[in-house]
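Handout, section B. The chain below has 101 residues.
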Amino acid sequence: MTLVNSLCAEITIYQGVGEQTGAFVERSAIRGKKGLCKSMRDLAIKSRVLGDGYYYIPIELWPDTKEPVIVHKHDWTVIGSIPRTSRAARKPLAESRPESA
């Protein structure tokens, strides 16, 4: 599938739920291209990174349902927020090497 002259549906994402706005635009008319998505996976990734807003996806890739679609199925935990005590302790590098005589 080529995206060169494809028609895209405008999708609004709010708190992980996507809904079609009813507007359709040509790919070449989309300004900025940040919100342009090549797949549902791409839509999920971009909406997690960029946050709520308007995104564009080729109309044949969006589900035919009129109901809102859940784009983010799971909340993500940032590894930096996990307490350090629960991580596996590492041995110091000097202790893990065998001594050579």
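Note. The two ends are 64 Å apart (CA to CA). Compare this with the example in section A.
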